[in-house]
Amino acid sequence: MDDSDIRQAILRAVHARGPGKTLCPSEVARSLAPNWRPLMPQIRQIAQTLADGGAVIITQKGTQVNAITAKGSIRLGLPD
Prior knowledge:
The chain is of the alpha+beta class. It has helices spanning 3-17, 25-32, 40-52; strands spanning 22-23, 57-60, 63-64, 75-77. It is globular.
């Protein structure tokens, strides 16, 4: 899967969800491929790049985290 396609899918998803709401990165993966699980590391990597640029926020239990180093479930959303 192309990084650009994933980047666009993440941005579409967080904007569709709207301010103050978050989504699981697996929702993005499921929208891109029937066999979505192998996409998760790539999605986390690209989500972190987007977060580094200020386009999205990544949280875990309400606290901002790094998508690469965080263990367990994370959420993606729009910055305040």
